[in-house]
Amino acid sequence: MKRFHVHVHVDDLNKSIAFYSKLFAAEPARVENDYAKWMLDDPRINFAISSRGGAAGVDHLGFQTDDAGELAELKARAEAADMALFDEGETTCCYSRSEKHWVTDPQGIAWEHFHTLANVPVFNEAKADAPATSSACCAPAAPRGKPVGIAVKSSSSCC
Predict the structure, then answer these.
(1) How many domains does the chain contain in total?
(2) Of 120, 64, 113, which is closest to residue 89 (Cα–Cα)?
């Protein structure tokens, strides 16, 4: 079963944690100094917020899959529909190691499709082949770490 994913940039993490905890009637499943995530079952959503740069507001949407087969299904749909797809493969972002790819809708909204493999103690790990100045965790060489060739908002967001 898939889980809808929303990632929002916030100006004040603590104030936003308090607000969303009341809105969802639940505490976050994970809290870091720059990030919080709720894994809700009703509705089934992975809702994440971060204060890692970028303008406040919705950063990207997506689907988190429960297994590799569901992720492969989403990738096959995107490929069959001739969507511009950026296959990031296995990467570390948002305190998780995941397998992921990205597509972008006609308005330029990035959609992340991912399967979480493990939790990790850091927001992201630099890839050996990524430029040393890159702050994006999702895909080197893209304007925001999202699909190559698509204009998007900032340079330091992910998951």
Answers:
(1) 1
(2) 113
